[in-house]
Amino acid sequence: MTQIKYVSKRNYSDKKPWLQFGAPNRNEYEKWSPEVCGICCLKMIGDAYGFTSNTSLYQLAMECKQKGGFKELPTGEIQGVFHKPLLDLARSYGLDGNIESNLDLEKITAALQNDRFVILSLDKSKVDPRLKGGHLVLVHAYESASETFLINDPEPILAEDGQNVEIDFNRLEKISNKKGLIIWQGEKI
């Protein structure tokens, strides 16, 4: 399996986190950094193949927005990221994939065994009842002996450190929304 470098939505230790994020200023960083869990997942995959290594999270988010990946409401709230535009963005960077609406753990396991990655939608309220909404994480490995998945969680809500979080089969079954994307290396454009 291809080596995955962890990418987080926010860098709390940086005094000017918008610079690393690629945003032109703090306001744009504050507006967009909470919304980019799917973008982080895509960047982790793209970086593993060298396709997005020189592309910032902000640039990827703006490109995805142009493809219809986010909807800005009059209230200022941002909805998204939507799966089809995220897949379109992946394809524009040399990746390929499928959108899955019935993504059970058997499909996830099979995808991982075929050197593919899974961007999986979770129900935040099933992780922590105080949270609401959906969340995307990157499932990048499966340990069959322990029936454990390795997940990179860009927020992170699954554990204090979002890198290589070990989630057993039963817990992932409980918190999964059973939808997401299966992504693999396509042709670099």
CATH H-level homologous superfamily name: Cysteine proteinases
Task: Using the alpha-carbon principal axes, give the shape.
Answer: globular
**Tally the helices: what do you get?**
8
The residue-averaged pLDDT reads 94
**SS class:** alpha+beta
How is the main sheet built? 6 strands, antiparallel
The spatial strand order of the largest sheet comes to 3-8-4-5-6-7
Q: What is the β-strand count?
A: 8
Element order: H for helix, E for strand? HHHHEEHEHEHEEEHE
Over the alpha carbons, how many angstroms does the gyration radius reach? 16 Å
Quote the beta fraction.
25-35%
| Total domain count | 1
Report the top-level CATH class. Answer: Alpha Beta
* Helicity range: 25-40%
CATH topology: Cathepsin B, Chain A
Distance between the termini: 22 Å
Which residues form runs of ≥5 with pLDDT under 50? none
Based on the coordinates given, report the CATH architecture.
Alpha-Beta Complex
Write the layout of secondary structure elements.
Blueprint: H1 17-21, H2 26-32, H3 37-48, H4 57-66, E1 70-72, E2 78-80, H5 83-92, E3 95-100, H6 105-113, E4 117-123, H7 124-127, E5 134-143, E6 148-152, E7 165-168, H8 169-175, E8 176-185
Antiparallel strand pairs: 1-2, 3-8, 4-5, 4-8, 5-6, 6-7
Helix pairs in contact: 4-5
Could you characterize what this model shows?
- The chain has 189 residues and is of the alpha+beta class.
- The chain has one domain (17-185): Cathepsin B, Chain A (Alpha-Beta Complex).
- It has helices at 17-21, 26-32, 37-48, 57-66, 83-92, 105-113, 124-127, 169-175; strands spanning 70-72, 78-80, 95-100, 117-123, 134-143, 148-152, 165-168, 176-185.
- The strands form two sheets. A six-stranded antiparallel beta sheet has the order 3-8-4-5-6-7, with helices on both faces. A two-stranded antiparallel ribbon has the order 1-2.
- Strand 5 and strand 6 (148-152) form a beta hairpin.
- The radius of gyration is 16 Å and the shape is globular.
